[in-house]
């Protein structure tokens, strides 16, 4: 996924929105730090409210440009009422849990239920990916202690597109996680970049759109 | 620097003389309360910890410590698990930039244990309080500013009651209604800029407000000076004005960031913009007041001055959103007693009940709506069936089954009526 020196300008682009959900301290922000800077910080501070990163990834010999826009959410339950603000436009939700903490997996189940309700209400499609993080803490040759629960859950929830075990700390499967997402972006979502219009697009007065600033989900 | 020494000496003199009135009226300057030695003595006084309260809190601390030693943390307070998770990752920039003069040489592991205990003791001392992420950073400031754990406890206890109680309810609503004041203040000062910030829900300010800036401003000294301004003014409304002042002070940078990001992103779609606005607004403080900022102290001073001006020109009570603030919120009621905390908890509980009733009512309406739709479908079905049968009956009898048809028709009609 590294950005190489690319001579041509991309012809098409896509904004692809991802939201990270999951229990506190499972490694949501660390996964993003690995994606963004390829670093890991043991003492990474907790996310309050939400954080946002964007990353541009050229593909197809720079003919296409993917702009990943990723919301990282707070894990503590009291902030959950705010979370629909972040997944309302998401194309993809990554639900993260900690492979050595069964409670965090229960929280993952909660998030999948929430998303299913939302998808049903809004009649939209959000791709759901389940991620078991901290796989470096499982001894070599062993499995996660509650692997059966995970497997059963996945087989009962067909809406889960993919399941991956990752480690943000040891950089295991993080690139794969995002590469898979990129590879699965529907070609129809790409739109041509028009040279003339790409300048002076920002109008700071901003047209008011349907999104109401005062409406809060809580 | 000589000014600093003068201010320091004067403040020490005031403290030695225990001249509380003079301390409270001490004119605000760019040094704040100058150093941690003075803060350690002045902050508790400014929070209203007098001789009586002090001895009461000493007792409370002793009792809670006894409980703490006997119980496991999870029995001690329901939020122990979350507190532990946050304490484990608390010691980054704020700690690294602290002068921390009485903690030099102590291990971070030891500090983590003390921070955990401090938070747990205060949570236990305030019945019905709920821990929130961000409080751990506030507590870290309390831990680092005082030489002994009992003093940290007393300070954090009062700070929580007086300046943070809205955030400690079982839900987040009392905090959210506070955040809505921020765009309202901007509206009165800079309408053009307001049009930009009003596009998004003011959740971007959440982290700064609930952590009293400790989670966003990375430099311990800068946060200390901001806290000086809040305590010297004895004004729980000031953090909201400080946030509005930060927005206005860094307006140019915010607009530049928005322009840059949106320019390079190619095609604009408006939903995308909302996220970008949110993202830029939730990052601008960290970006502009980072540990690498040159002369951040000077900027902080100007921002504090600006917040005083805002407070003067836009009184909160004049704002529309102020009506939605809870009656027992620290923005409306400055008393920092346990009684007010309980009243706020009751007020919030009433709000929750009301929401629950609304939700039930909403579900009922939805169900009725669905019933109405099926009723309409059935009626239409009956109507169509009626027409078909009517046409059939008008036909001359060919198969001799009209009487059977008629019976079936009546039966069907009756059964549908019964169903409805």
From TrEMBL, chain A:
- Which keywords does the record carry? Nucleotide-binding
A Gene Ontology molecular function term of the record = GTP binding
> Out of the domains of life, which is the source?
Eukaryota
Q: What is this protein called?
A: Rab family GTPase
TrEMBL record, chain B:
Keywords in alphabetical order, please: GTPase activation
Is Transferase there in the keyword field? no
InterPro entries per the record?
Rab-GAP-TBC_dom, Rab-GAP_TBC_sf, TBC20/Gyp8-like
- What processes in GO biological process is this protein linked to? endoplasmic reticulum to Golgi vesicle-mediated transport
GO function terms (MF aspect): GTPase activator activity
Tell me the Pfam families matching this sequence.
RabGAP-TBC (PF00566)
SUPFAM superfamilies named among the record's database cross-references: Ypt/Rab-GAP domain of gyp1p
List the coiled-coil residues: none
Domain Rab-GAP TBC, residue spans: 33-234
Report the superkingdom from the record: Eukaryota
User: What's the name of the protein?
Assistant: GTPase-activating protein
Species of origin reads: Pichia kluyveri (Yeast)
């Amino acid at each position: 996924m590294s950005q190489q020196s690319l001579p041509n300008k991309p012809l098409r682009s896509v904004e692809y929105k991802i939201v990270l959900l999951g229990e506190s301290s499972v490694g949501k922000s660390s996964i993003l730090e690995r994606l963004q800077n390829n670093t890991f910080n043991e003492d990474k501070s907790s996310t309050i409210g939400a954080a946002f990163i964007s990353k541009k990834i050229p593909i197809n010999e720079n003919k296409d440009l993917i702009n990943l826009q990723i919301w990282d959410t707070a894990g503590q339950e009291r902030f959950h009422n705010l979370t629909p603000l972040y997944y309302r436009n998401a194309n993809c939700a990554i639900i993260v849990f900690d492979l050595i903490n069964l409670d965090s997996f229960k929280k993952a189940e909660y998030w999948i239920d929430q998303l299913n309700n939302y998808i049903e209400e809004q009649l939209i499609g959000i791709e759901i990916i389940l991620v078991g993080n901290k796989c470096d803490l499982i001894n070599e040759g062993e499995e996660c202690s509650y692997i059966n629960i995970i497997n059963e859950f996945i087989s009962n929830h067909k809406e889960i597109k993919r399941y991956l075990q990752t480690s943000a700390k040891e950089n295991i499967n993080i690139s794969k996680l995002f590469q898979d997402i990129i590879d699965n972006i529907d070609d129809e979502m790409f739109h041509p970049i028009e040279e003339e219009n790409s300048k002076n697009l920002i109008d700071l007065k901003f047209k008011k759109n349907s999104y109401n600033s005062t409406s809060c989900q809580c | 620097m000589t000014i600093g020494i003068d201010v320091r000496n004067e403040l020490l003199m005031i403290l030695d003389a225990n001249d509380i009135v003079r301390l409270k009226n001490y004119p605000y300057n760019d040094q704040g309360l100058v150093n941690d030695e003075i803060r350690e003595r002045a902050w508790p006084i400014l929070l209203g910890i007098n001789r009586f309260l002090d001895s009461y809190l000493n007792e409370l601390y002793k009792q809670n410590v006894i409980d703490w030693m006997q119980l496991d943390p999870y029995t001690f307070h329901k939020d122990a698990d979350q507190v532990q998770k946050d304490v484990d990752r608390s010691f980054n920039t704020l700690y690294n930039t602290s002068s921390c003069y009485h903690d030099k040489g102590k291990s971070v592991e030891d500090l983590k244990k003390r921070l955990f205990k401090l938070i747990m003791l205060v949570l236990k001392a305030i019945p019905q309080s709920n821990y929130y992420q961000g409080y751990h950073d506030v507590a870290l400031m309390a831990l680092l500013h005082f030489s002994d754990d009992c003093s940290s406890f007393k300070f954090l206890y009062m700070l929580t009651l007086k300046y943070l109680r809205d955030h400690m309810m079982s839900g987040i609503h009392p905090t959210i209604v506070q955040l809505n004041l921020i765009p309202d203040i901007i509206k009165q000062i800079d309408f053009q800029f307001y049009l930009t910030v009003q596009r998004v829900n003011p959740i971007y300010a959440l982290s700064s407000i609930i952590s009293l800036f400790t989670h966003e401003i990375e430099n311990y000294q800068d946060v200390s000076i901001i806290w000086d301004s809040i305590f010297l003014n004895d004004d729980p409304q000031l953090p909201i004005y400080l946030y509005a002042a930060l927005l206005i002070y860094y307006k140019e940078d915010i607009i530049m960031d928005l322009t840059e990001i949106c320019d390079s992103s190619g095609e604009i779609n408006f939903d995308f913009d909302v996220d970008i606005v949110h993202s830029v607004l939730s990052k601008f403080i960290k970006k502009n007041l980072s540990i690498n900022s040159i002369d951040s102290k000077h900027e902080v001073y100007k921002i504090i001055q600006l917040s005083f001006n805002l407070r003067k020109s836009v009184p909160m009570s004049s704002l529309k959103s102020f009506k939605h603030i809870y009656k027992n919120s620290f923005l409306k009621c400055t008393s920092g007693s346990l009684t007010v905390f309980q009243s706020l908890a009751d007020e919030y509980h009433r709000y929750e009940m009301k929401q629950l009733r609304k939700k039930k009512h909403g579900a009922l309406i939805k169900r009725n709506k669905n019933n109405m739709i099926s009723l309409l479908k059935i009626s239409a079905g009956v109507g169509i069936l009626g027409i078909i049968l009517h046409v059939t009956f008008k036909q001359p009898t060919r198969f001799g089954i009209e009487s059977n048809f008629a019976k079936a028709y009546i039966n069907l009609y009756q059964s549908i009526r019964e169903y409805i």
